[in-house]
Specification:
heterodimer; A: 295 residues; alpha/beta; four-stranded antiparallel beta sheet; 11 helices; B: alpha/beta; 2 domains
């Protein structure tokens, strides 16, 4: 598949720090590409270089094989992590303002319906709730019916219901064949939306690929989870089970769930609160860096 | 760049900025009411004519003959050196001087319609005998007549500096500029729209202030309204350009506020908004010539009080155009979205 957007050895240095230390990847058309990592990993700096908002210290970004230019501006939609809108304008006026910047704009009515803005079209943008504001920012990002849509931490600060609603919207946009570039530190968001991901840490990509492939590549185990108190002093070295404390619980990574449960039963561990799950991107990050994602 | 699309984008920003200003009631009220209040308070304070001060223009002070020295030693008279008699005579006609002395020529001029001139003439001959009397005639210019062009200029200055510069710095700080940069809108379209929006709002507000003060206190307008409009537009453009230069890179409102105050207050004090710089040190008067507000106020005053035509205020207009071109070029070169 031809890359719609390609980053080559992107670097960004500031006098006080090196934010991005040589990042390369290609984003095929029609996929949702996720840039993941903890706060300060260099995700936003990288995506702002992709958006043409920030000039790289070195390296290049190509859109449809060419340097970013007027065509990219016409065909890209962007939703920044934090955006202020012009004061004293209503939701409808703000949409019209942004629509007027583009040669071709999506139908206003369709946009209003899709992002559920109808109820507060005449409301001052300063009087919107967090979820309403995110929907407006998404509508603005979609106003030109973009070929590629950048979503930078789109659900940060939203309540679970608003986040879920946002994901539904993103799924519908994906279904139209749009290319999405998503940055997030919510691994479940990446799981939900992304076809391909790149995990960043300290300004570098430490793993990249399809989420399932990455997990399969790094884990053959399943994870058993028990309350920390349930295993206290029960396991022995010869049991072959390594227990890892995490978030007040104990996790055991094992390739043979049945055998592991047998051992736990033999050691008299209470299993009434036992959970079994497959490894997640959170586990992958911990596995690759030795650190929790949200620390 | 396709011109029609470019114009459409710029017009959209222009309209949005107009809405932002006109819906901000506090800002509109401040822009309209503040200058009117200033004029009212000064008109009230200074139309009482209760200041026991005479102002005498003195030409050739260095060559003062012995007989004039006694007159010059009198108290409660302010003596202002005059370099050009031809320029000073119209000022005597407008009562800006109470008396004009030409010491090398051994003569003095008095305005026959000036009460102060009348009083001074009673004092002059005993103190400075031998001076020949010359008379002029003309109605006086009230302080409020002299003040109005200054207040209009000051309003243009504040509205331009803070309305454009401060707004752009705020946009940069809170991310509005960053969001706009992600669209096909160019810096030229964005800045052009802001200049146009502020310019027409300044004209609108200034017309309101002009009509309001004229209705409340009344003042002289002896020149062309169109020429006055041209002066205000060129003056506003030079101030807007100055504010664009200030806002070209700053991302901190506090710094912008401090810098704009640092520019606006000395300009207000040195540009003869409130008082004339006649008699002040040469260095101060030279410094004032470097300020766009000096040329704006000077040209507006010449049109409104003297009824000056375009040719007479051409130097001031040229200075305003030059200042605008220079500041705009610098601002365009320095401007950054982030």
């Amino acid at each position: 598949m031809t890359a719609l957007l390609e980053a080559k050895d992107l670097k960004k240095s500031y006098p006080e720090a090196e934010a991005v230390r040589g990042v390369s990847f290609a984003i095929p058309r029609g996929v949702c590409f996720g840039l993941l990592g903890p706060n300060g990993a260099g995700k936003t700096t990288t995506v702002e270089m992709l958006e043409g908002i920030l000039a790289p210290s070195s390296g290049s970004v190509a859109y449809r094989g060419q340097a970013l230019g007027p065509r990219f501006r016409q065909e890209a939609g962007m939703m920044f992590q934090s955006t202020a809108l012009q004061d004293f304008l209503t939701v409808g006026e703000t949409l019209d303002l942004f629509a007027s910047f583009y040669a071709a704009a999506r139908s206003r009515q369709e946009l209003i319906e899709r992002c559920a803005l109808g109820e507060f079209l005449g409301r001052d943008t300063r009087r919107l709730s967090g979820g309403q504001r995110q929907r407006l920012l998404l509508a603005i990002a979609l106003v030109n019916d973009p070929l590629v849509l950048f979503l930078d931490e789109p659900t940060t600060g939203l309540d679970p219901q608003s986040r879920r609603n946002f994901w539904d919207l993103a799924h519908r946009i994906k279904a139209e064949g749009k290319t999405l570039v998503l940055t997030t530190h919510y691994m479940e968001e990446a799981h939900e939306l992304c076809d391909e991901i790149a995990i960043m840490d300290h300004g570098r990509i430490i793993a990249a690929g399809a989420p399932r492939d990455l997990l399969d590549r790094h884990f053959q185990e399943s994870v058993l989870i028990l309350p920390a108190a349930a295993l206290e002093g029960r396991l022995r070295a010869e049991d072959g089970l390594a227990a890892h404390p995490r978030n007040g619980q104990t996790e055991i990574f094992t390739r043979d769930v049945n055998a592991a449960i047998q051992v736990l039963l033999q050691r008299g561990a209470p299993l009434d609160r036992l959970q079994v799950r497959t490894p997640t991107l959170e586990d992958l990050f911990l596995h690759l860096t030795g650190r929790e994602l949200r620390h | 760049m396709e011109p029609r699309a470019s114009l459409r984008r710029a017009f959209a920003v222009f309209r949005a900025r107009n809405r932002e200003f006109l819906r901000d009631r506090m800002s509109v009220s401040w822009n309209l009411i503040f200058p009117v209040l200033i004029v009212l308070s000064f008109a009230f304070a200074f139309t009482q004519e209760n200041l026991a001060l005479f102002k005498v223009g003195v030409h050739g002070a260095a060559e003062a003959p012995e007989q004039a020295r006694a007159f010059r030693d009198l108290k409660y008279i302010r003596f202002v050196p005059v370099a050009d008699l031809q320029r000073a005579l119209p000022q005597l006609e407008r009562h800006q001087y109470d008396l004009l002395l030409d010491l090398p020529g051994g003569r003095y001029w008095v305005n026959e319609k000036s009460p102060q001139g009348y009083m001074l003439e009673r004092i002059l001959p005993p103190s400075a005998p031998g001076l020949t009397r010359q008379a002029v005639s003309g109605e006086g210019v009230r302080y409020v007549d002299w003040l109005i062009p200054g207040v209009l200029g000051m309003n243009v200055m504040f509205s331009s500096l803070f309305g454009v510069g401060y707004a752009i710095v705020r946009y940069r700080k809170n991310g509005v500029l960053k969001r706009l940069r992600a669209t096909p809108l160019s810096a030229f379209e964005f800045l052009g729209a802001h200049v146009a929006s502020r310019l027409w709002l300044i004209v609108l507000v200034t017309v309101g202030v002009y009509l309001g003060t004229d209705l409340l206190v009344g003042f002289q307008m002896n020149g062309s309204y169109w020429l006055l409009l041209l002066v205000l537009v060129l003056g506003a453009l030079s101030m807007i350009s100055l504010s664009l230069l200030v806002a070209a890179r700053l991302a901190n409102e506090e710094t912008a506020n401090g810098l704009l105050n640092l520019i606006s207050w000395p300009m207000m004090l040195l540009s003869e908004v409130w008082f004339s710089l006649e008699g002040s040190p040469e260095a101060v008067r030279q410094a004032a010539q470097a300020l766009p507000l000096t040329h704006l106020v000077g040209a507006a005053r010449a049109v409104m009080i003297d009824g000056a035509g375009a040719a007479q205020i051409a130097p001031q207009l040229a200075m305003l155009v030059l200042t605008t071109a220079l500041l705009l070029a610098l601002a365009a070169r320095w401007f950054r979205w982030d």
